[in-house]
Design goal:
The chain has about 200 residues and is of the alpha/beta class. It has one domain: Spore Coat Polysaccharide Biosynthesis Protein SpsA, Chain A (Alpha-Beta Complex), CATH 3.90.550. Helix 5 (about 105-120) runs parallel beside helix 8 (about 185-200). Strands 3-5-4-6 form a four-stranded mixed β-sheet. The N and C termini lie far apart (about 35 Å). It has helices at about 1-5, 25-30, 45-55, 75-80, 105-120, 135-140, 150-160, 185-200; strands at about 15-20, 35-40, 60, 90-95, 130-135, 165-170.
């Protein structure tokens, strides 16, 4: 967490959502100047929604805090939305080395995005692991999923609403030491996530 927060551009306000963490992440984040929001309802979507509600800025950015992505990559995405080149700018992960993304996670991601491009014409190739849009626009989509289906529901509803997307390549690095993804860390986790995705697919 300290290493990640040190990379956040100075003019960005950081909100960290504590979604039942068992370590000292919340205390460390507060000590480093981040706003910490507690969300008792478990789930990725619940955590993101809590952060969005707590935000006050017009533009909001979402990314994981596991060290796999660089916050500096948000800057051109913020520019796209602020200057009207996109309603939502999204990141497309490009692994920094072989094996950074497990095969089952890559396969599941590719299958979901291929389906969405075929069914809806969605012009993106990743499930928006890093994204920027206007807060009021996001709340206006009235997203309901509070689990791992949240980013897929977001893409589906944004596409249906006619949003203009712009996709940026972002470098995807190994997670911080000692952390493990609930999604891609195991085949079981990936299958559970796939089930959540299936619930919101058109």
């Amino acid at each position: 967490m300290p290493a990640l927060l040190a990379k956040v551009p100075a003019d960005l306000r950081v909100i960290v959502v504590d979604n039942g963490s068992c370590d000292d992440t919340a205390d460390v984040a507060r000590a480093l100047g981040a706003t910490v929001v507690l969300e008792s309802v478990a789930g990725y979507g619940a955590a993101v929604h809590a952060g969005v509600r707590a935000a006050t800025a017009e533009l909001i950015a979402v990314m994981d805090a596991d060290g796999s992505m660089d916050p500096a990559d948000l800057l051109p995405m913020l520019d796209d939305v602020e200057e009207g080149r996109a309603r939502m700018a999204v990141g497309r992960r490009r692994s920094s080395a072989a094996g950074v993304q497990p095969w089952h996670a890559r396969l599941g991601n590719a299958a979901v995005l291929a389906w969405l491009r075929w069914r809806t014409g969605l012009p993106v190739h990743d499930i928006a692991p890093m994204r920027v849009c206007r807060r009021r626009d996001l709340l206006g989509l009235d997203l309901q999923d509070r689990r791992f289906g949240y980013p897929v529901e977001l893409l589906v509803k944004a596409q249906a609403a006619g949003w203009l997307f712009r996709e940026h390549d972002i470098t995807y690095r190994p997670r911080a030491a000692g952390t493990k993804s609930k999604v891609s860390g195991t085949v079981r986790g990936t299958l559970r996530t796939a089930r959540d995705f299936a619930r919101v697919l058109p």
